Amino acid sequence: MVVTVVFAYVGTMLWTARISLSNSHSLPVDDFIGGEQYARLFHNARWLLSLQNMIVIGVCFIAGCLVIGTLLAIFIDQRVTAEGVLRTIFLYPYAMSFVATGLVWQWILNPELGIQHVLHRLGFTHAHFDWIVQQDMVIYTVVIATVWQASGLVMALMLAGLRGIDDEIWKAARVDGIPRWRVYASIVIPMLGPSITTAFVLLFVMIVKLYDAVVAMTQGGPGTASEVPAKFIMDYLFNRANIGLASAASIVLLVTVLAILAPFFYARSRASLRKAV
Fold it and tell me: Is residue 250 in a domain?
């Protein structure tokens, strides 16, 4: 495992960083041009658009998954009938690949085949739901598909946290006559901090490497309206034969992930040390 980590992960990251400082195109070359690839990258309008899209999708995706996943977990935590079946149904989309999710939602949102077509067949001829072909709305179709897929994961994490809440808290709340929603808002949700943090990290990593769903749903279109960084990297790596620029973009994404995850792991290590003391 040590050899695998050193050579397969650390080694490839260092190699990518080295290539990002070269003028490599179809094949890697051993020259050195400093940060020129990074300067070209951040003067590339397509790259800047992909970053903007990643931020919009990321904020909507993470917020949607956390809200829906938490509500689903609270619902199942009421010891509802057929709890096991409901858990499976809600978690099942997460077992699907993003490619399958993208294709399914492409059909559902297709104006000629999906929701809009059904509404027209029902007599609502003036109804429009053609976001997937609108440049200013297409990224929200990606949000809908990805939230549908990942909310079940958040539900599972939150439900595990809810099942760890001491029953004495609920007994004390009932004795004091505190409304159930107030207990969740003021006591239970704050106690789910570790579960929320874990869910946030997993969702953030999913957004940074988002590629399959976008390619399956929109191919980055219309035009480049739904372009994301991972698709930019793959296009420049394979289609445009610009390894240097693709490597620079990869390193930027790596630094972004580390900038988010480093404080998280630092806080966890500090908390572990405090507990040990």
Answer: no
CA distances from 37 to 96, 164, 250 (A): 36, 50, 12
Long-range contacts of 44-48 (CB under 8 A, 24+ apart): 44/245, 46/224, 46/227, 46/232, 47/229, 47/232, 47/249
Q: Which helix (H) or strand (E) element contains residue 167?
A: helix 167-176
CATH number at residue 128: 1.10.3720.10
> Peptide bond before 179: cis, by omega within 30 degrees of 0?
no
Q: Rounded to an integer, what distance in angstroms lies between the CA atom of residue 213 and that of residue 146?
A: 8
pLDDT tens digits along 198-216: 899 899 989 998 999 999 9
The model's pTM: 0.89
Q: Is the CB of residue 162 less than 8 Å from the CB of residue 168?
A: no
Residue located via tokens 């990297």: 233
Phi–psi pair at 157, nearest 5 degrees? -65, -45
Helix then strand then coil, % of the chain, to nearest 5: 75, 0, 25
Per the structure, the count of domains in the chain is 1
Residue 232 lies in a domain: yes
Total length of the chain: 277
**Owning domain of residue 190:** 45-241
**What's the pLDDT tens digit per position in 21-69?**
999 888 888 888 989 999 999 999 999 999 999 999 999 999 999 999 9
274 vs 277: CA distance, rounded Å:
5
